[in-house]
Amino acid sequence: MKVTKAHIIDSLHKQNGFSKEEAARVLDSLFEIVKKTLEEGEDVLISRFGRFCVKDKRKRAGRNPMSGEPMALDARRIVTFKCSRVLRDRINRDLKAT
User: Fold this and answer.
1) pLDDT tens digits, residue range 33-84?
2) What CATH number is attached to the domain comprising 79?
3) What is the pLDDT of residue 95?
4) How remote is the C-alpha of 56 from its chain's centroid?
5) Which domain holds residue 18?
6) Mean per-residue pLDDT for 87-92?
7) How many CB atoms lie within 10 A of CB 9?
């Protein structure tokens, strides 16, 4: 199952007593802070969850997968995510028991 923004808003509503409108505003504010920080090229570290990092990719040669023709790929910035050790351990908890 995917967790959508609506699922998160509903969980905030049920677990914290926020109205759905308040929960939506809180979540939207959080996303805006994260987006603005990443746009500025800064990393976002959420303790016990993980780190969102902005990385620069240089211009490079590539290939069109449909035609096989060579093409130039422009320089760009990407966002990567690395989960924290705490989250990684929780994800793999059941695998360690077997």
Assistant:
1) 999 999 999 999 999 999 999 999 999 999 999 999 999 999 999 999 999 9
2) 4.10.520.10
3) 78
4) 17
5) 1-40
6) 93
7) 20
> In one letter, which amino acid is 93?
R
Q: How far apart are CA 87 and CA 3, in angstroms?
A: 17
Identify residue 31 by its one-letter amino acid code. F
To the question of pTM greater than 0.70 for the whole model, the response is yes
- For tokens 């929960």, the residue is 23
Work out the number of other CB atoms within 10 angstroms of the CB of residue 23. Answer: 20
Residue whose structure tokens are 């995917």: 2
Same domain for 29 and 72, yes or no, is: no
At 53, the amino acid letter reads: C
